[in-house]
């Protein structure tokens, strides 16, 4: 995955941004991290084979190499292992890299920020503000239904997500909160006190 800045170059990106409507889509970073675990590593289930060859090369192989130094291990990791891999070994992966680094909100003055947990309402507002009539505000691309997964997937709405973080050791919980501190503060999200307590 490449950002516009990487594809166009810095100067071309700046020119493009000045003549464009800028929109950033945000999500609670802790919900986003769990979502990546569920989607990329099968929510901790043991797989008989990888989802695809590319998926193995891009996700499973580096994870198994980082965690076990052996890519021939069974295709199964738990959430603690995933967080260790994601934050300590592959922090720049777009599926879990902080928005403050991935989307550069300190460098780009976004005109609109829409939130995944209120996506339908936010898209309706955006359609009205920009006089757009062709967006299906009820469609969420790249997010197929998954059995047992709440579509909202927001930490403040889905207490089930807390269970993932309650199993983390204190040093790793502290790493999670440190990694996403700017995202949480900038976007106005909250962290349950029980997670702050684990990290201290």
TrEMBL record:
Query: What protein name does the entry list?
Result: Carbohydrate sulfotransferase
Q: Which UniProt keywords apply?
A: Carbohydrate metabolism, Glycoprotein, Golgi apparatus, Membrane, Signal-anchor, Transferase, Transmembrane, Transmembrane helix
Q: What does the UniProt entry say about where the protein is found?
A: Golgi apparatus membrane
Q: Which InterPro entries match?
A: Carb_sulfotrans_8-10, Sulfotransferase
Q: Name one GO biological process term.
A: carbohydrate biosynthetic process
- Provide the membrane topology annotation: Single-pass type II membrane protein
Q: Name one GO molecular function term.
A: sulfotransferase activity
EC number(s) reported in the record: 2.8.2.-
**Family designation:** Belongs to the sulfotransferase 2 family.
Main localisation = Golgi
Annotated source species: Petrolisthes manimaculis
Any one GO CC term of the record: Golgi membrane
Pfam families linked to this entry: Sulfotransfer_2
């Amino acid at each position: 995955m490449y950002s516009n800045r990487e594809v166009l170059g810095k100067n071309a990106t700046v020119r493009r941004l000045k003549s464009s409507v800028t929109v950033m889509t945000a999500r609670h970073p802790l919900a986003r991290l769990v979502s990546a675990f569920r989607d990329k590593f099968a929510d901790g289930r043991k797989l008989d084979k990888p989802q695809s060859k590319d998926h193995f090369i891009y996700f499973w192989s580096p994870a198994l190499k980082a965690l076990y130094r052996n890519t021939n291990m069974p295709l199964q990791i738990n959430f603690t292992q995933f967080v260790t891999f994601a934050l300590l070994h592959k922090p720049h992966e777009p599926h879990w890299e902080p928005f403050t680094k991935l989307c550069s909100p300190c460098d780009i003055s976004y005109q609109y920020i829409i939130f995944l947990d209120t996506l339908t309402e936010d898209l309706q507002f955006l359609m009205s503000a920009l006089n757009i009539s062709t967006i299906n505000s009820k469609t969420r691309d790249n997010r197929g239904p998954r059995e047992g997964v709440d579509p909202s997937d927001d930490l403040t709405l889905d207490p089930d997500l807390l269970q993932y973080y309650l199993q983390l050791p204190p040093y790793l919980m502290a790493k999670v909160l440190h990694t996403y501190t700017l995202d949480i503060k900038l976007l106005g999200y909250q962290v349950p006190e029980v997670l702050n307590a684990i990290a201290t």
